[in-house]
Input
Amino acid sequence: MLVRTVAAAEDAIEWFGGLSLFTGRAVRELFRRPFEFTEVLKQVFEIGWRSAPLIILSGLAVGAVLSMHTRSTLERFGAVSMIPTALAFALVTETGPLITGLLVSGRVGAGIGAELGGMRVTEQIDALDSLAVDSFKYLVVTRVMACIIALPLLTVLMNLSGLLGGYLAEAVVSGASFTFYFRSAFNGLAFSNYIPPTIKTVVFGLIIGSTSAYLGYNATGGAEGVGRASTQSVVLSSIFLIVCNVILVKCIFFLFPGTAL
Amino acid sequence: MTEELEAGRKSGKCAIEFASVSKAFGSRVVLKDVSFSVAEGTTYVLLGRSGAGKSVTLKLIDGLLKADSGTVTVNGEDIAALEHRALAQSRKRIGYLFQSAALFDSISVGENVAFPLRRHTKKPDAEIRSQAQGLLEQVGLGKEYDSMPGDLSGGMRKRAGLARALAVEPSLLLVDEPSAGLDPVTSTEIDELLIDIKTNRHATLVVVTHNIQSARRIADRMAFIDEGRLLAEGTVKELEHSEHELVQAFMNSHMGG
Ligand SMILES: Nc1ncnc2c1ncn2[C@@H]1O[C@H](COP(=O)(O)OP(=O)(O)O)[C@@H](O)[C@H]1O
Ligand SMILES: [Mg+2]
Output
């Protein structure tokens, strides 16, 4: 029993070491030629643009729900005029980035894990290398780069649609005006409220891109292995993202003490 | 045989040389102390049962796998010692038809063939397209430029893979089971194409096949691999008179494998 636990722990450490080396290599290669611009653009479209409908719909729903909660809380203190600010604050600092990260790990993580896994087991990755194309640069670095670019943009989109959802929920109840709502939402936010959490999602992009690319790129065992790579990509990138988020939030509070309201 | 290797090396006419190569995956030993050499401009056929290590041998030649011990020399260079860029450079003249064809399934058949041309030449689009079209016609797939790989039969994918391998104008062509999934007529046509590439373009070929008739047609020399060892090596005649029963059985079967 103990032996087995130790063996499992060793495997986990070895796996994690492999992932760290892989991520390190991907980050280094981000800054090295050739940059494969066309592939990066294609991936930004695939990862970013194609996720937009999911992000907008979720944002509307999350914003509406958060707004109802905010109203019921603030009503008790007679601070209903604070609703837009409170909602914007909740969205921008935490809810927006985290939900965007989790939604993207679901959609994009599974996609990258399955796509690269499929290419690995059907020898397409070998074929790229045999045609003198660096498969790591062509497949992995481009996807990591695209995730890093897409995540902050999707987060902004999520925040805006969240606010819109909140406004719609509010409009039904109180008939608040659109301009008033958005002006007070933005007025209540300082630079340090929205810039650091949005930049934080660059790290989310790196986590999602490299974890799922690592699992796909190293997949073994036929179709079953591809399925496994895809599922594990979602599970592991979500977990890493949630755990890293704790550290990142701590860092932001440390670097920008004024972040708290 | 060692003398022969030495002779090949000295005259500089040895395209590929395996010297005591061993390869294992975990505890599974795939190749044990395998040595052979392939002279430039000849066709070398690898025979053996499924799982014998033939595909692994081809991947070792292309540097896609690294030997655990021993050296694989291609065009005079130790393939495992080449750094990234040099390896890519040497691969630009190596064509590889994979056992699974390995077409990129997100782009059309024609674009698969055009892929190496787009990556490594600065030719205009129209020229690349017509070159890819020409290659597809050579393998009898002239009408399939815009088809997606997933819509082709196994044998057609194989032929498209061969067209892509030929697009690099290879001086060394690695071919893994070209006739798998092909009817006898097409199979003979592919053999003729392979012979043509050797004689007219002076390429070196390493071909894995289960088809004995095809092996007889194309081979200058052959090797028989079994359980990770090189059981027999030589010309077609020499293998026919091999002392190993398995080799004889293989050589005298009609379809082989
Ligand atoms: N990447 C790999 N990882 C683990 N085992 C492998 C790998 N590639 C091949 N093998 C194993 O090596 C052996 C030889 O495979 P292969 O060279 O494909 O045989 P064949 O002679 O039929 O082409 C098989 O047992 C196969 O399972
Ligand atoms: Mg094989």
Summary: Chain B has ten helices and ten strands. Residues 105-169 of chain B form one domain.
